[in-house]
Amino acid sequence: xxxxxxxxxxxxxxxxxxxxxxxxxxxxxxxxxxxxxxxxxxxxxxxxxxxxxxxxxxxxxxxxxxxxxxxxxxxxxxxxxxxxxxxxxxxxxxxxxxxxxxxxxxxxxxxxxxxxxxxxxxxxxxxxxxxxxxxxxxxxxxxxxxxxxxxxxxxxxxxxxxxxxxxxxxxxxxxxxxxxxxxxxxxxxxxxxxxxxxxxxxxxxxxxxxxxxxxxxxxxxxxxxxxxxxxxxxxxxxxxxxxxxxxxxxxxxxxxxxxxxxxxxxxxxxxxxxxxxxxxxxxxxxxxxxxxxxxxxxxxxxxxxxxxxxxxxxxxxxxxxxxxxxxxxxxxxxxxxxxxxxxxxxxxxxxxxxxxxxxxxxxxxxxxxxxxxxxxxxxxxxxxxxx
Length: 387
Known about the structure:
The structure is a single chain. The protein is mainly alpha-helical. Helix content is about 70%, strand content about 5%. It has helices spanning about 1-35, 40-45, 60-90, 95-120, 135-145, 150-175, 185-200, 210-220, 230-240, 250-275, 280, 290-315, 330-335, 340-350, 355-385; strands at about 50-55, 55-60. It has a two-stranded antiparallel ribbon with strand order 1-2. Helix 7 (about 185-200) runs antiparallel to helix 8, helix 12 runs antiparallel to helix 13 and helix 14 packs antiparallel against helix 15 (about 355-385). The mean pLDDT is about 85.
């Protein structure tokens, strides 16, 4: 119990600080996008880096290296945290896990349904995955500010909910946001994954035995048509959790990755993808259209409705139990806070649309909606209304 509490405290502290850095990077990116620096910054993002020779193609733009390369490391950490929670954390006990699982399901299905309903006869229907996501760094940053005013059980609930939400996002990306599959590269990627599983089976504890095949798997998956970040998740599944022979390799790599991901990779993603020209976004009807409405209502209404409704049904059907110190008003507040989509929502927007105009429109709406969700969620949670 003490160990779990210590891990949870470290998780809160790391993500809270990372969330603060994330906010600073968003502000910097917006300033750059709306000043004379925007041209030079966009040129930097489009600069080609890497090597290309013969059958090897490793030359991509700076933006692609961030979104496809560094974000694979982000998904590696997400996968490791999910595995750790399932094996030895808040999701390891079926009684404790059911409520956030049901809540996350509602928090994904209802927003996606609202978006799809609004965009049913629109070319932007492919963005239905955008309002499904929750940005755990921003959410935890806000929870850390008000943690003395909300019960710890509620803090654990939002952490578990966000982790299940991330798992859902991974499945959506892998299944629905992938291009045509190249079978040759897919087989090569699966061979790398099989090699990792073989190392796991024989209790190989050297991280290099998993990370090196993981790099090759990233390259192969990048050329299959499936988004390359899936390689991070598959590598996470293969890394052993066994602690009988000493320190768990899974725990070790989580601690190695937490700071680089929270303090470097996610802020870099925000810096590269928040460069939104506000004047252009406010003109030309960008804020009154199915795409913006779908994201706005999906995150602002779909999230709290889905999370609260599915949680209530799970409790009423006796599939789960609500902690005695948590009210339904607080569950709604958590649902409202989960409307902060930011990192994952922007990532989904980039996968949904090839058109830069639609991407910027979606990013602007995500930014504004996430701000509203953060403020409203904060206000609701500090009021301590008992329902």
